[in-house]
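Here's what a typical entry looks like (Fatty acid desaturase):
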Amino acid sequence: MTHQQKTNIIKKEIIASYKSLRAKYPVLKYQNFIGFSIFMSCLLISAGLGYMWYVDIIPAWVLILGNAFLFGVLHELEHDLIHFIYFKNNKLVHNLMLLVIWLVRPLTLNPWFRRVLHYHHHKFSGTLHDVEERGVTNGEKWSLKRLLFTPDLVIGNALRVIGLFSDMKREVDNGNLKLHTAKKLKLSGVFGLIPFTILSHVILYVFFTDILLDFLHNKYQFTWVLPEVIKDVLAWSKPIIYIVLLPNLLRQFCLHFITSNLHYFGDVEQGNVIEQTQVLTVWWTYPFQLFCFFFGWTHAIHHFVVNETFYIRHIARKKAHEVMRKNGVRFNDLGTFRRANRYHEV
C-alpha cells in the first residue's frame, strides 16, 4: 500500500474508536464544559499550591513540580484551543481561556501568533520551513548547546535565526515556500515573543545570574554582585519566579525535549504523515513526559486526526497505537537522537 492508503486506514480506525468511545460515554459530548472544568481546576490547584508555598506549608520543590505538571495540562488545553476545539462559537470565552493560559505560561509564544506557526507545521511538518519545530531545536545535532537551549525561546532562537531565515529564503527561491507565507511566519515568530516571552526569559536570566554570582562571592570571594536595585526587583518578583516561571522552565524543557525528538526533520516526504512523527513511550522518557502530560504518547495520533481533544487521545490511545504500529508508524526510534532527527540514516 502507499503511504496515503496507510494514512487513510489509520485515520478511519482512529475516528471509529473515537465515535465508539463517545457512544459509550455520552458525557464526552460536553467538551466545552469538560475543557473549561479542566481549565479552572488547574488554575485553582495551581493557586492553592502557590499559596501553600507562600505561607511555608509546602517547600519550593513541591510547588515547582506540582505547577509544572498542571501547566503541562494547560499546554495541552491551549493546543486544543489553537485548533478551535473549545468554544468555537463563543469568541469571548475562547480568547479569554487562551489569554489566561498564556499568562500562566509566559515563557511560550503568544498563542494567536503560535496558531499561524502551528497550522503551517501541520501542513509542512519536518521541512526546512517548519518554524515551530525548528524553534525548539528540532533538526539540530545533539550537543551541550542544544541541551542548554532546549527550553529557551529567546537566546536559543536568536542563535538560530540567521540559519533559519537563510533556509526559508532558499525555500522561497526554490519554489517550495511562498514569499508572503515566509514573511507571515517570520513576523509571527518575532512578534509572538513580545512582550511576555522576552520579559519572562530576562527575569530568569537575571535570577540565575544572581544565584551564580552569590555562589562565587560566598565560595571564592568574587567581588562583583548584582546592583541592589536589581536584587530588590528580584525579591519583589520572587512569587512570580517560583509560582510561574520556574515550573514553566521545567515544563518547557520537558516538552521541547520530547516534541523535538518525536518529530522527524529534514528528509520527511512532504504530505507523508507516517514519516512526520513517532510514538515515544520508552521508560526513561517518563520523567520528561510527566511534565508535558505524556505528549510523546499521543502527539503522533494528533497528526492523523487533528480535531479531537487531548483527553480523548489519551483514553483511546491503545487502539490508535495498534493501528499505527500495524501501518508503519515508528515507536521508540531512539536513533533519531544520533541522526539529528532525520527519518532516514545519514
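The chain has one domain: 3-337.

More examples are in the samples folder.
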